[in-house]
Specification:
This protein is of the alpha/beta class. The protein folds into 2 domains: 7-26 and 274-377, Beta Barrel (Lyase, Ornithine Decarboxylase, Chain A, domain 1); 51-257, Alanine racemase (TIM Barrel, Alpha-Beta Barrel), CATH 3.20.20.10. Helices cover 29% and strands 22% of the residues. It has 12 helices and 16 strands. The protein has helices at 7-14, 30-44, 60-68, 79-89, 104-116, 129-141, 165-169, 195-213, 234-238, 241-245, 269-275, 355-359, and strands at residues 25-29, 73-76, 95-98, 121-126, 148-153, 178-185, 224-228, 252-256, 281-291, 294-297, 313-315, 321-323, 331-335, 347-352, 364-369, 372-378. The strands form 2 sheets. Strands 1, 9, 10, 11, 12, 13, 14, 15 and 16 form a 9-stranded mixed beta sheet that branches. Strands 2-3-4-5-6-7-8 form a 7-stranded parallel beta sheet. Strand 3 (95-98), helix 5 and strand 4 form a beta-alpha-beta unit. The structure holds pyridoxal-5'-phosphate.
Length: 400
Amino acid sequence: MTNKTTSEGLDQALAPCLDRLITPALVIDLDAVQANLAATLRRVGGPQRWRPHLKTSKQAVIIELMLDAGLRSFKVATCDELALLLRTAGPRAVDVLFAYPAQRASLSAVLALARAHAGSRVQVLADSPAHLDALAGWSRALGRDAPLPVMLDVDLGMHRTGTSPARWRELAAMPDPLELAGLHGYDGHLTWAQRDEAHQGYDALIELAAALRAGPAAPEHGALELVTSGTHSYAHALDHPGLGAGLGAGDWRHSVSPGTIVLSDRRSHQAARDIGLRQAAFVATRVISAGPERVTLDAGSKAIAPDVSPPSSAVLDRPELEPQRASEEHLPCRVATNAHSPELGRLLWLVPEHVCTTVNLYREAVWIRGGRYVGVGPVGASGHACGLSDDALVKPPREG
Ligand SMILES: Cc1ncc(COP(=O)(O)O)c(C=O)c1O
């Protein structure tokens, strides 16, 4: 297969299973995943500077490729992603940040997983001083006596979670059994064009790290970690003069946390240009209806990028087909005037606008390697589990 995946290449790769393949289907090109991991590692300068977010890929097969590439630090947003990582890593020790404000029930699950995988390091995120106190109280109540590493979530202007640098500066001490491990400043509100704004945020993060390092909340041992930036701002972090340097004698170290970069999507075109990303995730779809200047595909909002305004995707190698507003299982496409309309049943390939929310819709993914279909496997952490599966045999109460 050439570096650029073509619809013809994908047709050929899946030819052996096309008669059985029910669409829509998520298709992952594992060679492209590997190429993206290598390109990102080259760009960031090695595994110690990248803490990939697993919310994008959610699959053991991809975690295995990450471990093979030398990555050992990860970010997750859900208990399912955490469990999948620790299960897949097995005896290989990993360091994982539960990068979501845990509540009592999720913290309980996180601590149980940490206990069951004692060789790995599990860190949690504190949203605010009040949440820090809550985390400490829940941890004590849940019997945690070993220090629990915590990163402070610093709001650098996204105004989604976290607390301002000025308020975190007032932190007097870390409540027992919590231990300050680092600062988390995710700047997902910024774009590739907003380098100056990103750098102002990183300056604030570094100043906060220096203040905390000199204060009573500082850990006795070890450097603080500063975690920033996803796919749309990692380049700003990498060329920030302070973030690469550290505060003198190893007081802190920095890592970026892009996740989308592993699979790529239409939104990540700047990153794709920056490091030569390959598109690794596609949705296989078929024409299910054809009308005048219109075809409809079987990949609606329950199959691809439900969170974006139209278009949710582009049809690979078919620019004459323009996806319109999707309904749940239908994606109408306008056919450009005088263009050839694909026939009923024709297989087409969609490139998602947003790959993370696309992957999350699938229970399984079809794998391609070396330009050939090699099998299918679970998207082990898609969707949400409620943590009560052990109660599954409890009988529902009778009605009436
Ligand atoms: C806290 C956090 N970190 C990292 C990322 C990774 O960003 P991206 O998927 O753009 O690489 C996200 C994305 O939503 C995020 O919410």
